[in-house]
Amino acid sequence: MAEDLLVAKGIEVTYGGGGLFGSRGHKVLHGVDLSIKRGETIGIVGESGSGKTTFGRALLRLVNTSAGTIHFDGMDITHLPDEQMRPLRRRMQMIFQDPMASLNPRHSIRRILVEPLLFHRVASNAADAEARVMSILDRFTLPKIVLDRNPHELSGGQRQRIGIARAALLEPDFVLADEIVSGLDVSTQAQVLNLLKDLSRELGLALAFISHDLSVIRAVCDRVCVMRFGKVVEEGPCEQVFAAPQSGYTRALLDAIPLPEIDPEWLDRETLAEPSS
Amino acid sequence: MTEPFLSITGLSAVSDRENGAPILRDVSLRLERGEVRGLVGESGAGKSTIAKALLGILPRTVRVTGGAIRFEGQDLLTLKPKQLSDIMGSEISLIPQDPQTALNPGRRVESQLTDGLRMRRGLSRQAAHDKALKLLEEVHIRDPERVLKAYPHELSGGMRQRVLIAAAFALEPKLVVADEPTTALDVTVQKQILRLIRGMQKTHGTGMIFVTHDLGVVAQICDTVTLLYAGKVIEAGPTAQVLATPKHAYTKALLAAGPRYDRPTAGLEPVPQAIFDQLRAEMGIM
Amino acid sequence: MRKSLKAALSEPKVVLAGGFILLLLIAAVFAPWLAPKDPLEQDLMLGTLPPTGYEGTEPGYWLGTDDLGRDVLSRLIHGSRTALIVAFVAAGLAALLGTMLGLLAGWYRGWVDVVISRLVDIWMAFPPVLLSILLVAVLGSGVHSVIAAIVIIDWTRFCRVVRSETMAQAQMDYVTAAQTIGFPKARILFSEILPNVAPVIVALLSLEMGIAVIVEAILSFVGLSVSSDTPTWGGMIAQGRAIIYQGWWVLVAPLVLLFLTVLAFNQLGDGLRRALDPMMRR
Questions:
Q1: How many domains are there within chain C?
Q2: pTM score of the predicted model
Q3: Do β-strands B207-212 and B175-179 pair in parallel, antiparallel, or remain unpaired?
Q4: Which of A94, A107, A152 shows the shortest C-beta gap to C180?
């Protein structure tokens, strides 16, 4: 059994609050636990307001937690100062929902891909960095000319592959993928998901895959964690959760997905999620 | 054969912004009274352009180069602006995609919902108010009086979409164009809204053009479907037939590309490049 | 960088307005060689000569002379020196100061933001014209004081806009991406965010140059700018106002030039803002 790479316990996040006037703030996560093993892909699913995105950002220390602990590779990183966090950053990467927004519009693709390699000394020099970038472009079936382009000159699918390449080049141990295919067409989506699957297998990545779409999660994840109103309502291996969901909310989520086949009863079938406590 | 309620024949359009690149290529489709037809395709398929053409709101950069849109015996493309504006909103209405921006944030729901009733149908303030209340009840809004007094930002996304559906049906139109009405919604809310749209459409006997990119949504609420790629009709027919026995390779590939929660091994087969090449060859684009 | 330049040069506004400002700049730099006469040379025999094309002109005085017989064209050309020095130096320094503070406030937030934002609020509560007259009165008249007055008053303009633009950019995912890579905060600010705020700064800078030209004209109009033996557009306007019935051209010539210059700066700013936006470019 592989060891746990990332362990989050009792994570709470409060937005607003504190400040000069000591306002109470708005709690969006109410004690979330999750552990991710090396080489494992875990899906985090939920609707708007479930806190899935905030939770993902808390795992990467991009938002401050008001309670709970996060351990990465056995080290408590919950309150690690920026300078000590820096070497770990290479090992924890993120792929974003909107590749247009996540690639600096003023930088060339070359700069976007090469700079992190030099910054973390993954590449020993500029020539080495360039070579690494070239080989990943090749692998992602991206033409070399994209290097001199700016993000807005690429297609949506190409941009998303650049986003994945940026994360993969740093040879991370953990990658957070936040709704990375929700802006893509189905035909492009499959390419991007396959790329990610291959990559995670090859690098032995621990992958947290945030999505609102249970079908996508079923296709790429080993385990799934269902969130609602800032809490985990169900968590387990995909085979188990999809075959016999324990929570009424999971059942409602599954039943709300329209499948591309005629089902005359689907529209009128009512699967109510029990109200949250 | 009698003329159908709505027919589009040989509709072609180009985009002036992209140096006259075609965005609709000889599109034909028909709709009977009380029928729901899905317009489905990926981005750039032209499904939204058709919806806009039906509503007479094509952007200036889009130029129609041929074809006709016949609605109840009139060609919408040759009508004078005055005649067109009499039909739009009254005979043909829209359920928009984004409930966040489709309502004016500075006006109460009531005034937005009753505008058409008072101006188009000449209802008094009181009569329009009563009609608006009835409409909100029809879209299953529990506290219609409160919602009428509310500003859009005080309502959830699902509630706003309900208000927009009520507004679309307010003047008893004969044709409703739904432009991706559930794309911005959560999946559980989407189901409720789909049920509501289908219910309203059935009760009122309205014809409906339903634009979506989701074949699952098509399967659940459309009687017939037209699948487009790059402005061209690839396949059309009764929904059950197109989904169960697709004729075109592209349709088959699209169905195989979408992941399904009930089939862990299905999905994730990208549409092969060969199919795109074939489609482009059929259309004569390189 | 080259892409930006190319995009800027394909925008007609930029070429036209920029071309005008370039001409003005050449005139200012080479004023002693370009001006047909000595701008200070008085000749009462040649007082209030009308511009070429009107009756009673004297060859060589294209735009006529003022009541002291000084050549209007030469005075305009020499006056552009003061105008442009003030435009470039004052607007540049105001932009530098305002941008720095705005970037810091918008990116570091917290107490840095509180201090800078309150300072801006207090600053903006002072009536600007009064403040500038007061400043020049304290510092004494001269180009330096005019520049100081403009910088001290108008840095807030840059600060407010840059702060809010920085805050908007900080919300973008490319900034989060830079954080996940682990770039230090200062590096993210200057190499990721600043290039995206730059178009706004450039546009504002160009507008500010127009404003600086006007402010300089106002201050010399009321006699608070450079000493009266240096020709300035504002000084010429003041002088022209006094003799409007004898020689309207003495008033109209500097007014028209002032108007065109400010218009050019504004149009240049507008054009640059559009040309430098990577999303709108194509």
A1: 1
A2: 0.86
A3: parallel
A4: A94
